[in-house]
Write a structure and sequence with these properties.
Elements: E1 5-11, H1 12-21, E2 23-24, H2 28-33, E3 36-37, H3 44-51, E4 58-64, E5 73-77, E6 83-87, E7 91-92, E8 96-101, E9 103-104, E10 110-111
Antiparallel strand pairs: 1-4, 2-7, 3-6, 4-8, 5-6, 9-10
Length: 117
């Protein structure tokens, strides 16, 4: 797979707490599922629309795959049949190359900057 970046949506306060510790452990859903949920560039807007519509204060984390522990990253089939990246361990802060606050459009969906795999 030629993907260089994967993306994660999180609440601002969850990210700030993780950044202060040097390791982000995910939000409540991630912790309950036992892994941190990620999406590719082509999946992230749909993931946000399905799982986080209307939610304010979300951040988009852009993560460089090569900076992740390879033994903790797994590509798995999700409920919609798509192949999604999941991280089975905390996210090292140094793997995050960009943090972007997401605005909500009038339709309640998040507005994403141009992103690429």
């Amino acid at each position: 797979m030629s993907v260089r970046h994967i993306y994660h949506l999180c609440r601002s306060e969850d990210w700030q707490a993780g950044a202060a510790q040097g390791r982000y452990g995910g939000g409540a859903t991630d912790q309950g599922d036992g892994f941190i949920h990620f999406s590719t560039a082509s999946q992230i807007a749909d993931s946000a629309a399905r799982h986080r519509p209307g939610e304010r204060g979300l951040l988009l984390l852009t993560v460089r795959i090569e900076r992740l522990p390879a033994d903790l990253l797994r590509w798995e089939i999700a409920g919609d049949g798509g192949l999604y990246p999941h991280l089975y361990g905390p996210l090292p802060i140094e793997s995050v190359v960009e943090v972007t606050a997401l605005a909500l459009g009038e339709d309640g969906l998040h507005e994403f900057p141009p992103i690429e795999d």
